[in-house]
Amino acid sequence: MSSNPSPAAERLSNAVPSSPPRTDVLVVGAGPAGLMCAREAAGRGLRVLVLEQSDRPGRKLLVSGGGKANFTNRRVLPLHYRCGDPAFCGPALKAFSPAVMERLVAAWGLPVEERGHGQLFLTVPARNLLHCLMEDVRTR
Ligand SMILES: Cc1cc2nc3c(=O)[nH]c(=O)nc-3n(C[C@H](O)[C@H](O)[C@H](O)COP(=O)(O)OP(=O)(O)OC[C@H]3O[C@@H](n4cnc5c(N)ncnc54)[C@H](O)[C@@H]3O)c2cc1C
After folding, report:
1. How many CA atoms lie within 13 A of 61 on its CB side?
2. For the chain, what percent of residues have pLDDT higher than 70?
3. 119-122: strand order across its sheet
4. Residue 30, class by beta-carbon neighbours within 10 Å (0-12 exposed, 13-18 middle, 19+ buried)?
5. Residue 43: which of 35, 54, 31, 33 has the closest Cα?
6. Which of ligand 1's atoms lies nearest the C-alpha of 35?
7. pLDDT tens per residue, range 77-132
8. What residues does ligand 1 touch, defined as CB less than 6 Å away?
9. How far apart (Å, rounded) are the C-alpha atoms in residues 70 and 121?
């Protein structure tokens, strides 16, 4: 019997790398939460793989805020959240405050406007925010 691999086995061995790239963090879902998580992990030097089931990432982000992404609210407080653990929201908001998000969007050069009740929207389409977020994830 020949020891040569069959054409099918050869195709398979070409398709599957013998040692796949190392991944430290697997993120399921390329919505704003998953992309921010990936950005954060990549910024800490971790190798991140984002899995998305649909053909396009961030679909809901694209339609948020009537297409202008109401991306944060300057007046948001822990008491505005309903949470099983009342001790969670305060520190979480302190660690990533609306001001931090506002600075991030400003650093990406995206124009914003404040509407009623402290709501911040882009003045350009939400796809710009998605593009910046995706680029940030790729390049960190
Ligand atoms: C019309 C509309 C307007 C909105 N306006 C606003 C607004 O102005 N401001 C605001 O803050 N929020 C708004 N929202 C809500 C906002 O879009 C959501 O809060 C936000 O998208 C949630 O982000 P997420 O990453 O948690 O989830 P999603 O955006 O739902 O992302 C989850 C991702 O995970 C993927 N996924 C799910 N399961 C799997 C799986 N098993 N394997 C692989 N991938 C998977 C999905 O395909 C999706 O891409 C709006 C929503 C809608 C629909």
Report:
1. 23
2. 86
3. 70-73, 119-122, 112-114
4. buried
5. 35
6. 25
7. 999 999 999 899 999 999 999 999 999 999 999 999 999 999 999 999 999 999 99
8. 28-34, 51-54, 59-61, 63-65, 70
9. 4
